Amino acid sequence: MIKRLAIIGVGLIGGSLARALRAAGAVGEVVGCGRALPNLEKALELGVVDTFTQDPAEAVAGADMIFVAVPLGAMRGVFETIRDHLHPQAIVTDGGSVKGSVVMDAIGAFGTLPPRLVPGHPIAGTEHSGVEASFAELYHHRRVILTPLPETDPEALARVTAMWETAGADVTCMSVAHHDEVLAATSHLPHMLAFGLVDTLARMRENDEIFRYAAGGFRDFTRIASSNPVMWRDICVANREALSAMLARFGVEMTDLAESIRHADGERLLEIFARAKAARDRYLDSAR
Amino acid sequence: MIKRLAIIGVGLIGGSLARALRAAGAVGEVVGCGRALPNLEKALELGVVDTFTQDPAEAVAGADMIFVAVPLGAMRGVFETIRDHLHPQAIVTDGGSVKGSVVMDAIGAFGTLPPRLVPGHPIAGTEHSGVEASFAELYHHRRVILTPLPETDPEALARVTAMWETAGADVTCMSVAHHDEVLAATSHLPHMLAFGLVDTLARMRENDEIFRYAAGGFRDFTRIASSNPVMWRDICVANREALSAMLARFGVEMTDLAESIRHADGERLLEIFARAKAARDRYLDSAR
Ligand SMILES: NC(=O)c1ccc[n+]([C@@H]2O[C@H](COP(=O)([O-])OP(=O)(O)OC[C@H]3O[C@@H](n4cnc5c(N)ncnc54)[C@H](OP(=O)(O)O)[C@@H]3O)[C@@H](O)[C@H]2O)c1
Ligand SMILES: NC(=O)c1ccc[n+]([C@@H]2O[C@H](COP(=O)([O-])OP(=O)(O)OC[C@H]3O[C@@H](n4cnc5c(N)ncnc54)[C@H](OP(=O)(O)O)[C@@H]3O)[C@@H](O)[C@H]2O)c1
């Protein structure tokens, strides 16, 4: 049971966790914190938070659990602001999409890695933003990856794990570096391709007409290109090493594919497409 | 009203047209044609066709409308087989995803472009294949592009247009070359990215684990990588010029994006992502 939960950044990710814990009756009071008043007022109106403040230091005062769900570029500032206002027993965890940068930001702000900081990342989301996009079921049967460090207090890790399980998620632990590589492959690279494709078409002279002839598959394929540009700028900068490596790997694949197309090498094309289809179908089966 | 409709290739595309025209009461008899017996027997059982044959020449005998919906690589062979068996008034149209190659195949098989051949392409489909994947509503409110040539008989064009409208589609006409460029951008390039991404991940050492952490967005993003590899090999070979040009254009975009990531150029990244998001959101609005 969490007595006082502070949500710094009451958007899709923060708002959904608050809703899920409330729905489960697992939290006493929820304090919301953000910069803009309208979103916080909306959060109050929707019953996602009990009170709100625009000052992170005030939000964490008296809180036993703090969930930081702001864009990655704002993490360090939040850590610096709350540093001197945390209860000694308070647990801090986050939902940032890259873990190496959050750990660096924490070390930068706190001087050393706080034992009661548990870096985390829910593998769930939509292309929408803000508290109005949040919903209690977002984490149901979704994975949450926690990346504890040698310094991390096992009790804090256990409490954060229990919190996510209460929200309906399956919790896994892995190292910070491994998380950032896996996510570069499964999430960050696909987002780059979707943004890159839509931008390529948008920059073509006849782009109005081109979009007019885009069929059903295009809608799904490009859905993630409607994601929040600020959040994705921050993810790219924060995970630039692992993401650059994946982009290079993908570039090699596409050069091979483009060569096979140019040379009308049907055999090679069939091999690539068949292997991809088999992997996709296998993934779907296992996701079921 | 079509008296006798011959469907050469009773798969997703051919089967769905037969179902739609039957549902509209717009066709007397439907003859199905394919290579494998089980699919044809299934088509009969499902009521998609009234009779079937494995010989295209037999299928077209006495047909007033012939719809060729085989993979692009099989088009020329079908044209050669039916050439000497068509009724002089019979109209031949097709559903192939590339139009330049179909026109070349027709010229190759018939010696000259038959006036009653109307090249066409329904902008509708799913990642599934075969008659069992077909359904009568596939073309409802979807676009069908016809690419008539100067030689094309206006009456044949009018009849094919009416047929697709009866199936629920909106018909547009454009030139063969323009069709192949527009589709390279909106359909063929996205399919290459989906196949290329899934194959890149499938070839990584830890690929089992990687797919395990793929989230909801990944499922949608890669759906088209479950498409039929033979069909896509044929599309790539048939449209290799326009597709190579689009791959090159996309490559320039991705080089720019990768450079911006490597240099942590947040401003440039935000510009690219914001422009892409705006274009995607605009496209969605207009698709509504
Ligand atoms: N969306 C996804 O699919 C997804 C999935 C997993 C993880 N994540 C991660 O979760 C975090 C939040 O993403 P989200 O999708 O929930 O975004 P969101 O809906 O835009 O919510 C972010 C919230 O943070 C607030 N905020 C921004 N800067 C702040 C600051 N300096 N101080 C205090 N509050 C601030 C924003 O409100 P104001 O602008 O009013 O301050 C907003 O309500 C990000 O780190 C992201 O990487 C996202
Ligand atoms: N799927 C889409 O999203 C989509 C969209 C628009 C256009 N198209 C185009 O539509 C055409 C058909 O695609 P589809 O998705 O309907 O594929 P499909 O479901 O696999 O159907 C193709 C059918 O053609 C038959 N066939 C293959 N080779 C043949 C041959 N040499 N002679 C006679 N029949 C043959 C196949 O049966 P057997 O193997 O038993 O012969 C199969 O039933 C392709 O040209 C494709 O480019 C597809």
Automatic annotation (TrEMBL), chains A, B:
Reaction catalyzed: prephenate + NAD(+) = 3-(4-hydroxyphenyl)pyruvate + CO2 + NADH
UniProt keywords, alphabetically: Amino-acid biosynthesis, Aromatic amino acid biosynthesis, NAD, Oxidoreductase, Tyrosine biosynthesis
Q: Which domain of life is it from?
A: Bacteria
Cross-referenced InterPro entries, in alphabetical order?
Answer: 6-PGluconate_DH-like_C_sf, NAD(P)-bd_dom_sf, PDH_C, PDH_N, Preph/Arog_dehydrog, Prephen_DH
Q: Which residues form the Prephenate/arogenate dehydrogenase domain?
A: 3-288
- Listed pathway(s): Amino-acid biosynthesis; L-tyrosine biosynthesis; (4-hydroxyphenyl)pyruvate from prephenate (NAD(+) route): step 1/1
Q: Which Pfam families match?
A: PDH_C, PDH_N
GO BP terms: namely:
tyrosine biosynthetic process
Molecular function via GO:
NAD+ binding; prephenate dehydrogenase (NAD+) activity; prephenate dehydrogenase (NADP+) activity
Catalytic activity, EC: 1.3.1.12
Family statement drawn from the similarity comment of this UniProt entry:
Belongs to the prephenate/arogenate dehydrogenase family.
Q: Which PANTHER family match?
A: PREPHENATE DEHYDROGENASE, PREPHENATE DEHYDROGENASE [NADP(+)]
**Name the UniProt record assigns to this protein:** prephenate dehydrogenase
